[in-house]
Every structure is written in C-alpha cells, then in structure tokens.
Automatic annotation (TrEMBL):
PANTHER family: CYTOKINE RECEPTOR
GO cellular component: apical plasma membrane
Pfam families: fn3 (PF00041)
Protein name: Fibronectin type-III domain-containing protein
Residue ranges annotated for the Fibronectin type-III domain, each copy included: 240-340, 342-444, 550-645, 649-745
MF-aspect GO terms: cytokine receptor activity; protein heterodimerization activity; protein tyrosine kinase binding; SOCS family protein binding; STAT family protein binding
SUPFAM superfamilies assigned: Fibronectin type III
Annotated stretches, region: Disordered: 1042-1077
CDD domains xref list: FN3
Length: 1244
C-alpha cells in the first residue's frame, strides 16, 4: 500500500508540473490571462477499462486583474459532466485537492462514453475536457453490395458503435494476387450508414469476384477487413421489356417480344418469373410458360388463357441463373386477349316478366352474364326473334336494356315466344334463351296471383325475407319463382344491375335471402301454373305524407370497444315520404344520463355507426323518424355497454430482489382498465427463447396499489428480460422492460468422466457440466482408496482450473488386492459475499500448497489460477456452490462375491457343454441304430426264395430280355478261388459274438455316401470294377456279360503294361472280405440245403451283409478240361463240404474262413505250383478283431492270389485271354449297401 501511495503522489506532482508549464506557455504567448483557468487534458481518447485523471487549475492572474470582481478558491471548484447526453456533477468526495489552485478527478475502469467535463467555479464555467472512451476498430458486420445491370455497383454498411472517431478507407481489386487496388468514394453523411458507389469508370463488369478491403483506423489502433463479393450473384438486371412488341394475340394466348441488349454478359443464363393475373381474379397457376431467347431478343407466349376478350396483367421479372442472385424490377404489362362471340345467352326462367298496370306493355327480365363471359367489346343483348301467336313479329320494335326488354302494344290475349341472345363486336351467341309468355285472362289476374306480398328486413344480418299468401286457385300450381335485385331510385320495377331468381316449392310461402344484402332491395314473386303465368309481382310501398309515422324499432348491430352500430328498418313506411331520422345516445355514469348527443341522419340511411365511445361504458340509444309534417315518437331506449378494450400498460415495472432461482417483481396497475382486468401476461426472454407466465388479479384492486409477484424456477446465472401486459379480453401494450441476471447457483455434475490407466500414470478427463449455473471457477478432484473392509485409507483433494481442456494426471497408485479406488470430480461456482472485501485480499501466492495436489492439472495451474482458487476457498469472501460428484470406480482384484459368481458361471458353462456332448453322442447312436434293418427288401426276399430262369437273360446289365423278370440288383463282385473237394473247412461254428459284431458295425456313413454318389453316376458313367450286374438276384459268371458294368483297370486299358510297371493294380486288396469277394460257386445237384441256382450253375449272393453257410456249401469249381473229364468230376465232388460241418441256419464269420481248405490249383493258369499236401501246411489265424484280411486269405490259400502275384507266370496267357482283375475292396458289405442295391434294381 505504501508503494501505491508513493506512485500516486509522484503522478500528482507530474500532473501539477505539466499544468503549471501549460499555464505559463499560454500566458507567455498571449501576454495576458486568456481564461479564468484550464484543464488537463483538454482532449482524451482512451480505451474502455482505462484509468484517467483530469485536473482543473485556477488562473489566479485572471482573478487578480482589474477586469473582474469575482473571486475563485480551490474549494469552489467542481466538474459538470455531460456523459452520453446525461448531465452529472462531480464535487466533494469525488475530487482531490492537489494544492491551493488545483483539483484532480480520478476515473478507474472507464466505460464506453462520449463525455465532456466542464470545470466550474461557482456558477462560472472555466474550461472543458473532451473525453471519448471506446475501443479499437471493430469489424463491419453488414457489408453489402448490389450491381445494377452490368453498369455500376453500389455498396453500403453500418459503422459499428464506437465513441472514438473511426475512419474507413474502402478499396477493391478483381485479382486476389495483385497489389493494385481501386479506391472507392464513400458518403458518410447518413452515418452510421456508409454508402459507397463504384461508378462505371471503376466498375469491372466481366469480373465475377470483387475482393474488397476495409482499412479501419482510430487513435487506438488499426484494422483491416477483407470481404469477397460475387458480382453475378449480387447483380440486379434491368427491367425487361425494352422495345416491347406484340407479336401475336388470340382469344386465349398472346406472344410478346422485347430486346435484351446485354445478354452476352449473362453468366449461366437468365431465369424468368412470370405472373399472369386476370382482372378481379387470382393469379393463374401454371407449371411454366413457353418462352424463347436469342442473342438480342426474348420472346414470351402466354397460352391457355381462360377468358377471351378479357383484361390481364403480366408481371415479369428476370435474374441471373445463380442461387443468390436478385430479381429485377418488374415489367407490368396490361393486355387483353382477342375477342370472341359470347359462349352463352342470358338465363331466363318461368314468369320472369312484369305486366304494367295499364296492361298495354310488358317488361321481361334476364340474368346478365358476368364480365369475364362477355368475350369482347360492345357487349349487349339482342332479341333475335319474337313470335306472337306463333307468328314472327318485328323484333326491332322491342326496347332492349342491359337487363330487360320492354314490349309495347302488348296484347294480353295473345301468347308470345321471345328468343334472347348475347352479342358483342364478334357476333351473337350461337344459342338463344326462350321465354314463353302465355296469354293472361281476367280470371288469371283474379285467381292465379300471389296475395299480400310483404318484405321484411333483418338488421341483424342484413337479409330480407319475402312472404306471400297463396293464390285463390292453386289448381295446376307448379311452384313459385322469387326475384330480387338492387333497386333503382324511384323505380320500383327496375333493377340496378342483374336480377337473381330462385324456384320455391308450392308448399312454401316465404323466402329469405342470404346475409349481407344491400339496404335497398327490390323483390318480386311469380306463381307458375301449368300453361298459365301472371308474371312478376313486386313488393310496393304506397303511402300518404299525412299518415302517422310508427314508432321505430332500432336494433344493435356490430359492437366494439369504441363503437356501436345501430340498424333499423322501415316496415310499413315508404322511404319516399320520410325526411330523415334523429338518433340520440347518452353516456351513463352512476345511473344518470350524461353527455347526450343527438344526430340527424338522411332518410335513405338504414344503419349508423356511433364512433369514439369509451370502452366498457354504458350508453342509452333511442331513435325517431320524421317527415315534412310529422315526427314519430322516440323508440324505447336501448341500454348497451361497449365491449371491453385493451387496458393501458402496467406502470413502473421493477425487480426488488434476485436470487439464483427467482426474482421479486413489483409494478403498478394500469391507469385505465377498460374492462374486467383478469390477469397479467408476462414475457420472459433468455437465450433467444421467450416464455410466458400469467399473474391473476382481482377486479377490486386499486389503481395506485403496487402489485408484487415472485417468479420462481429460473435458471441460475442467466440473463433475463421481462415485460408485462395487462389483459381484459385483449392485451395491453407491453410495460417497460427490465433486465437482470440471476445469481450464481449449483452447477450440474461434470459429464463423460474418463480414466485412462497406465503402469506409471493415470489420466482423468471430463467434460464441463451441462448446466454451469455460473462461471465455473474450478473443479475438485478426489481419489478415495478403500481396503477390503471398505475402510477409507486416503481421500486427498486436488484442484483443477476451469479450462476448455479438463484433464489432470496423477501417479498410478499401488494396486493392493481387494482394494478399490474411486475417482470423483465436481464443479464449483463461487459467489462474492462482499465486493468491498476483495480490495483487501492478500494475493501473495504460496507454491508449497500446490505440492499437496494428488492429481496435477494439465497444463499445470499458473500462479494466478492457484491464487484465485485459494481465494475462492476463503469462506469469508466467497460462497461456494458445488455440484454433485461424478464418480468412476476401479477394483484391484475381484472380491469374494465376484469370485463366487465367476465359479458359478464356469460350473453352469461346463454343465451345458457336457449336456450338449451327451445329446450329440445319443443323436449319433440313434442314427446308427436307425440304419440297422434286419428285414430284407421284398424284391430280394422273393429272389432269394424263388429260382428264376436265366435262359432269357442276355448279356446286358440293365433290364429284362425275352421272358425275363427284368429286375437287377447292383452288388459287389469279387472273383473267388475254386475249391477242390479236399479243401473243405474243418469246423464251422455259428451264432458266435463275431457275427453280432459284424452286424453292429455293418452301418457306415461312408458307405451311404458312396452309394449315393454311385446312383448319381449310373446314368452317365460305368460303375466301378468292384460292382457287377446281378440280373434277377443271380451272379453272372460270364465275363462277357460284365463288360458293360465293370470299369477296366489300367492294365486292361494298356495291354503292353507288364507286371513291373504296375506292381499293385489293386491298392484296396488289403481290405476286409465282403460276401461279394467270394467267387461264384457251383452248386452240386445232390445237395438239398442249397440256394436256388440258375441253369448255368450260378448262385445268387445273399444281401444281408454276411456270408451265408449256403454260399460256403456251394463254392464253385472250375469246369474240367475236355481232356480230363473224369478228373474234373472227381475234383468237383471233392469240393463239397459235409453237411454236418455247416450250419445252414446261421452265417459264417470272416474269422471262420480259415477253417476252409486251401484252394486247388486253377486249371488253365500257369504259375508256381501249389503244394500238393496242404493239410500239413499251417494256416495263418485271423487278426484279433473279428475280421479276416484279404492278405491272410491269400496266404492260407482260401482265395486265389491277386493279379499282381501271378503277373509273371501268366504274362503270355494274359495276352491271349483278357485277365480278370480283382475288384477294389475298400471295406465290407453292409445292410445299407444291400438295401441300396435292392432299391436300384430298375437300373440293371
């Protein structure tokens, strides 16, 4: 504080010295005292928020001279200021006395102003100081330019408000990269609006973009602002229609042409906006009008215009084909389509004629055409033909008017036919309206005329009701016709304009017109009989001037808050005898007449509007009529109150107290309520949103009473504007507007708290609150650590300043098992308790307190920010509003409950997996069991039981031949070796477990897939060599019959291939034996328990998937050679097995095949000699899993060797005789294979 006082003292001394020097200079220059004193500075231009000292010094020499008798002391000095047109005085405590002749006035943090401070001594003004407080140059917000038809450009803008005089220099260029600029002359006379004109000398018509620069300067600084203007988009073209010419005109179209001299300048073409409006009709709506443009002319054709010979108005504007371009001034062209003869005649109806009382003339009426139906000039109506008693008469003698025609010398005992047409300059209408006028007898006039025709006017809706009595004779009455038209003055049977008519049923005796009719209306009615009609009968008014005038019966019509409309009728009185009306109205005040006014109204008036009445006030109204000789009695008084009006505005709206959620309002009632004051409607505006609230009121409230209202539910720290309107049935004008800002409040919690952990640091990020409710001074960050017992270990606080980037970083804490960390953030607002206390705050900063920060703000807090936070935490200076916490929880390891949940989840998942696996295994087992079928197919069963003659079977593989059955089964074929009689098996056992094992493993998915694949190939390819054709269930032994169904091996396809090049032609020969691998055995005729055999000795193979005993009993032997028939017969007999060794009721397993004797040598095959004593040779036992491999059978001699084994010994023989290859053996026969064979018998 001592340092500041020292600085101020030095400043005062310097100011005083400058003032003395200035005074001496002035005295030295002039030689005499120029003024009683001076001020320093005389002129100052400073920025907003600056400090300023103004001193005023007494020129003692001026008062010491003999020219004045006045005195001035330093205590007599003060300042009179004019700040923004408001006068203010500064004296006493506002001033500081420097010495015995000088005072000083100090200003701190000056606001925007234009001020003049006049130093006064008593009543004498000494010298003034001009002070302007403003800002640096501000940018222009509304710079706008408009180009006019490629000729010149006009720009304007509004100077931003600034108390300091600011200068603007405007220039432009059309090339952004050039330094040469064109400077524009601007006019500042209409300030703050500045108008700039780019004349034709500077205007660059072919440049699309103008680059403007605004150089702005004042004493506080300089600024430059660049603005781009699109010349084409801001272009306003000239009004179209230069040298306009009419090219063509028809009854429904018109074509116009005009010149466009600057079309070459247009970029992207020109858009037209065309409006065509018929007279007294709305504008026509068309999707587009046909137009055409050339290099120098434009053509527009308006087609399909609705009315011939009618007036239209064309409004045409053009603009560049750019999005933001502007429309040109309009071309307004009035035109008329070509005339055409009228399209229809006037409309007439039965009885539309009037017979005068003289019965010598007759007038007939018709409904006129509308103006748009006349189709041309010189429109009129013509009587094209008239017939009297069916004889054509001279129609030229008929007097034709615009809405009627009069026939003189009319004869009532003759009937007439009149034909009426419409006509104009182009001719008459093609059609004519026919009016039949029958003869009228005395009886018709006496018995067939409507009686007592009366008209009644309804003032409430300005309508008329015509009533009548029926004719005396209603026999043959068809209906009535009612006519009405505007009346001509003093002519009761003439119409001013067209006549209207409507038919009424015979049972009706009155007709009411629509509302809004003219006050003077002529009405008539005619009775239409079959072949008879007496014409129109008008409502007449006859009376005597001496007759008494009836008392009037006025009625109240339209009622407003300032007027009452009175209407009346003249029933029973003819307006011709009246002179006028008297109308008297009086204002009622406390039940007594007051301010009565009487007005005279003309006789043709039927209503009057009393104006300038007070709202919501009672008035009495009465009327009378008068004639030249009489006056009627006044009518009964009408007691009527004017309607409620809008009250005057509420007065002196102010606010008394403002909190962070409410404001206390006070105002005075309107001076005039003008009705029942029911409520006040307040409008409250904030953030460009206006809401309303209603305040009820009582009628008995006094005018000068002050009304109070507390408006709640406001948002904290928000700018509001409030005004009020009073309401009766209408709202008043708004009251004065008050502006205020609510106090600081509780902010909402921060949002989107994000915690990012790493081994070394943890980063906390969050977003500001959605509802700050204040300036958001700072944020509090808390990290809470809890152990396994939920006991809080640490809760350190950290502070983060309110910045756009809300982030703090901390060292990642040590993660102890079963410990939990909670990160919490909340926003804090601060409210100043006493602004005066802030001036004495110690702002010294202690950096040691920042070291306690658990989480450091990023970027780190500055010294100023940390000092502010320390001050905010001072409860004697600020009241803090803290939001709710935004939290984020982190656990170091799962708790006991979480572990139980995890174990339970694992157990449930394991149970589900085991259940699914069990279900899948059961499903697979079910599939295998479903494949087991112990019942042979019907076709195979019959084939097995019944022998079939094979003689008719040819050599083919498919279908029957001759008398054959034609059933074929595909089976696996294998050439089995021939057995001699001494090769019988030693022992056969049946019904063991191996056969059951073979049955259980007989189903295979691979076999099923192989079967399906084979079925798809049977129609296009040959079957593999492992299959052969079985016709009628029997194996074919003839190789020639198998060539159509077997695929040849590679050795068959290439006869030159030797044994060395193909050592293993049958790679699947090492598989398990199938029944089809057994060679066809011949069946001895002496055996009783044998399978059915064919004529050639072949035996049908079983299809159940196992090798039956019968097959073993009937093993085939090779046919004996021709040279040794006896030996062959002996060998054949030796191959038959004894019956006691074979069980025919069971099947033989592959494991039992080793009991068979080795095969005898095959005749006709050269090769290594087989041993003659096979009994001594030990047989190799099969493997331990129940099946016998092909290799074991070959070693035991139970089947013949594969072609690879005998390839060398039979090389020469294989060249002469085709070698029979062993089939590809990839497994064993299953029931599915046999079933598939049975189902595909039709393919063999």
């Amino acid at each position: 504080m001592q340092i500041n006082d020292c600085k101020e003292t030095k400043m005062q001394q310097i100011t005083f010295a400058l003032a003395i020097i200035l005074a001496c200079c002035i005295v030295g220059l002039n030689g005499q005292p120029p003024s009683p004193g001076w001020v320093v500075p005389e002129k100052a231009e400073v920025p907003v928020g600056s400090d300023l000292n103004i001193t005023c010094t007494i020129n003692q020499a001026f008062f010491d001279s003999s020219k004045t008798n006045e005195t001035c002391r330093v205590n007599d000095l003060y300042f009179k200021a004019n700040i923004n047109d408001a006068v203010r005085y500064f004296n006493g405590s506002d001033l500081q006395i420097i010495n015995e002749t000088t005072i000083m006035m100090s200003f701190k943090n000056m606001s925007d102003q234009e001020g003049e401070y006049l130093c006064m001594c008593k009543e004498m003004g000494m010298f003034s100081s001009k002070v302007d407080v403003g800002t640096k140059p501000l940018p222009v917000q509304d710079f706008n330019c408009t180009s006019y038809d490629w000729d010149y450009m006009f720009c304007n803008f509004t100077e931003p408000r600034n108390s300091i005089n600011t200068k603007y220099n405007i220039s432009f260029t059309t090339d952004k990269n050039t330094n040469y600029r064109y400077y524009v002359d601007c006019n500042f006379d209409a300030a703050p609006v500045v108008n700039c004109n780019i004349t034709s000398e500077q205007y660059k018509k072919f440049s699309q973009i103008y680059f403007f620069r605004l150089d702005i300067a004042n004493t506080l600084g300089n600024a430059s602002q660049d603005i781009e203007v699109n010349n084409v988009e801001r272009m306003v073209l000239a009004r179209p229609g230069q040298n306009l010419k009419l090219l063509n005109r028809t009854k429904d179209s018109i074509c116009l042409s005009w010149e466009t001299p600057r079309r070459s300048n247009f970029v992207g073409g020109v858009l037209w906006r065309v409006f065509v409006t018929p007279e007294n009709f709305p504008t026509l709506v068309r999707p587009m009008w046909r137009n055409n443009s050339s290099a120098a002319k434009d053509t527009l054709c308006l087609t399909e215009l609705p009315y011939p010979g009618y007036n239209y108005l064309l409004e045409l504007r053009v603009r560049n084909n750019k999005t933001k371009s502007r429309w040109s001034p309009p071309l307004n062209y009035e035109f008329r389509t070509a005339a055409e003869r009228p399209a229809r005649p006037p409309r007439v109806t039965n009885g539309s004629f009037y017979v005068y009382s003289s019965e010598s003339s007759l007038t007939l009426y018709w409904e006129q055409l509308q103006k748009h139906e006349m189709n041309g000039d010189n429109f009129t109506y013509v009587i094209s033909e008239i017939r009297c008693n069916d004889t054509i008469s001279d129609a030229s003698k008929i007097k034709v008017d615009t809405n009627s025609a009069t026939i003189d010398n009319w004869k009532r005992d003759a009937h007439y036919e009149v034909f009426i047409r419409s006509s104009n300059i182009m001719g008459t209408s093609l059609e004519a309206s026919r009016l039949y006028i029958p003869s009228i007898s005395s009886e018709d006039r006496r018995l067939r005329m409507p009686l007592k025709i009366q008209g009644v006017y309804h003032s409430s809706n300005s309508s008329y009701t015509l009533g009548w009595k029926p004719p005396k004779n209603t026999s043959g009455l068809i209906d009535y016709t009612v006519f009405w038209c505007n009346a001509k003055p003093a002519l009761l049977s003439k119409c001013n304009g067209t006549i209207h008519f409507e038919h009424v049923s015979p049972d009706r005796l009155e007709y009411s017109t629509a509302s809004g009719q003219s006050p003077s209306l002529n009405m008539a009615v005619s009775a239409n009989f079959v072949g008879r009609n007496t014409g129109m009968h008008w409502v007449t008014c006859t009376g005597d001037g001496n007759d008494d005038l009836a008392k009037m019966d006025p009625a109240i019509g339209e009622l407003t808050d300032t007027s009452i409309t009175v209407k009346w009728g003249t029933e029973g009185v003819c307006a011709a005898i009246l002179s006028g009306y008297n109308l008297t109205y009086c204002k009622r005040s406390d039940g007594k007449p007051d301010n009565c006014t009487t007005m005279e109204l003309p006789k043709d008036a039927t209503s009057y509007k009393i104006m300038n009445l007070e709202p919501y006030t009672f008035y009495t109204i009465k009327m009378s009529m008068y004639s030249p000789k009489r006056a009627s009695k006044y009518s009964d008084e009408l007691f009527q109150r004017t309607a409620q009006g809008a009250p005057t505005p509420p007065r002196q709206l102010m606010y008394l107290n403002v909190t962070n959620s409410s404001v206390h309002l006070a105002w005075k009632q309107p001076i005039k309520a003008n009705g029942m004051l029911v409520e006040y409607r307040g409008s409250i505006t904030h953030d460009n949103t206006t809401n309303y609230f209603d305040v009820p009121t009582l009628t008995a409230e006094l005018v000068n009473n002050e009304k109070h209202y507390v408006l709640n539910n406001l948002t904290a720290y928000t700018e509001y504007e409030i005004s009020l309107r009073a309401k009766t049935i209408h709202y008043s004008e708004p009251s004065n507007t008050i502006r205020f800002r609510t106090a600081v409040g509780l902010p909402s919690p921060p949002t989107k708290l994000h915690v990012e952990n790493s081994p070394w640091s943890t980063v906390l990020e969050w977003k500001p609150p959605s509802f700050p409710a204040g300036r958001l001074e700072f944020y509090e960050v808390v990290i809470i650590e809890r152990n396994a017992n939920n006991t809080i270990i640490g809760q350190p606080f950290s502070y983060v300043s309110a910045r756009p980037n809300l982030t703090c970083v901390m060292k990642t804490p040590l993660c102890t098992p079963l410990h939990r960390f909670t990160y919490k953030v909340r926003a804090v607002n601060a409210e100043i308790l006493d602004p005066m206390l802030l001036t004495h705050v110690d702002k010294t900063f202690t950096r040691q307190s920042m070291q306690s920060q658990k989480c450091d703000a990023q970027p780190p807090l500055t010294d100023s920010e940390w000092s502010d936070i320390q001050n905010y935490l001072n409860s004697s200076l600020y009241r803090l509003y803290k939001s709710a916490w935004t939290t984020h929880d982190v656990s170091c390891s799962p708790g006991q409950n979480n572990f139980k949940v995890f174990v339970t989840s694992v157990e449930v998942a394991t149970s589900i997996i085991f259940f699914c696996a069990f279900a899948y295994m059961a499903y697979r087992k079910l599939l295998k069991m479903s494949d087991i079928d112990l019942v042979l197919p019907p076709g195979i069963d019959e084939t097995r039981k019944k022998p079939i003659d094979h003689g008719s079977n040819g050599g083919g593989t498919g279908g029957s031949a001759g008398g054959g059955v034609g059933i074929g089964i595909i089976a696996t074929r294998l050439d089995l070796p021939h057995y001699s009689q001494h090769d019988l098996p030693q022992d056969f056992s049946s019904g063991n477990e191996s056969s059951k094992l073979l049955l259980a493993n007989s189903s295979s998915g691979g076999m099923l897939e192989q079967r399906d694949a084979y079925e798809e190939r049977t129609l296009t390819t040959l079957p593999p060599s492992s299959y052969m054709s079985m016709s009628q269930g029997l194996l074919l032994d003839d190789d020639s019959q198998m060539t159509a169904t077997e695929l040849q091996s590679s050795s068959q396809a290439n006869p030159n291939l030797n044994a060395n090049s193909n050592p293993n032609p049958n790679p699947n020969a090492g598989g398990y034996i199938k029944p089809t691998q057994m060679k066809n055995w011949t069946t001895p005729s002496s055996m009783a328990n044998t399978l059915p055999s064919t004529a050639n000795g072949q035996l049908s193979m079983p299809l159940s998937g196992y090798v039956p005993v019968q097959v073993l009993q009937s093993r085939p032997t090779n046919a004996p050679a021709a040279t040794a028939p006896a030996a062959a017969a002996a060998a054949t007999a030796a191959t038959q097995a004894p019956m006691h060794l074979l069980n025919t009721s069971n099947y033989v397993q592959a494991a039992d095949l080793h009991k068979l004797k080795p095969l005898a040598p095959m005749s006709g095959v050269t090769g290594p000699a087989m041993p003659t004593t096979l009994a001594a040779t030990p047989l190799m036992m099969p493997n331990g899993f129940g099946y016998t491999a092909m290799e074991q059978l070959q070693r035991n001699g139970l089947i013949k060797p594969t072609p690879a084994t005998a390839a060398v010994s039979t090389a020469q023989q294989s060249q002469q005789t085709p070698q029979r290859l062993q089939p590809n053996i990839g497994g064993y026969v299953t029931p599915q294979d046999l079933n598939a064979l049975a189902h595909n018998r039709h393919m063999l």
